[in-house]
Amino acid sequence: MTPKQTTADLIRQLAASPAPRPFRTGVVAGGLLALLGISLGAFWLVFGIRTDLASAWLLMQVQAKTVLPLFLAITAVWLAFGSSRPGGRIVLWPLAVPLLLGVFLVIQRFGQVAEGSLQAEALGQTAFACLASITVLSATPLGVGIVMLRRGAAIRPALTGTLLGIAVGAGVTAGYALHCTEDSPLFFVLWYGLAIGIVAGCGGLLGHRYLRW
């Protein structure tokens, strides 16, 4: 307000300003889903979906490496939206469900594999490709998601960004799993989990920087 500007002038100026666009979870969710679909669609177009998916899907571990991150993505995005509103109650324990199930699969696999084969099975053949693919495919949806969440009012911006990162990383992972032929829980729990963790960390940093009031 300038020295010559009265309070009434300021009120009129603010009243004439366009209202901020409201935060609509449906719009944000739809935008994120579309971006994830585009990113994964481009990836599948170039690298393809595993050719034996129909038969491999009969195996529990193949189902798990898609279903667990999908459940994590749905849970995390719901929590991210909840944390974007003042007074929203955030209950984080549901995020532990897929993690505990993954740990159970790892322990179960430990009892099935010879000790000399554990390291080879955990490292697999595509660990670097797994990390690189998931993090790169997550970059655009995460960045756009942060921009969309700026319309909200996150009280804990770093947490909101982290939850968004988990949601995006896990969503991409669920799609990437349809391409990946590494079916051992020793591999996918470790490397999928690490990739989701990297995206979550990036989301936390972006949230701390850009979601503050």
Give an overview of the whole structure:
This protein is mainly alpha-helical and 213 residues long. The chain has one domain (24-210). Helices cover 70% and strands 0% of the residues. The chain has 9 helices and no strands. It has helices at 7-16, 25-47, 53-56, 60-82, 96-110, 118-123, 127-149, 157-176, 185-210. Helix 2 (25-47) packs antiparallel against helix 7 and helix 8 runs antiparallel to helix 9 (185-210). The chain is elongated. The mean pLDDT is 88.
Task: Provide a brief overview of the structure.
The protein has helices spanning 7-16, 25-47, 53-56, 60-82, 96-110, 118-123, 127-149, 157-176, 185-210. With 213 residues, it is mostly helical. The protein is elongated and about 80 Å long.
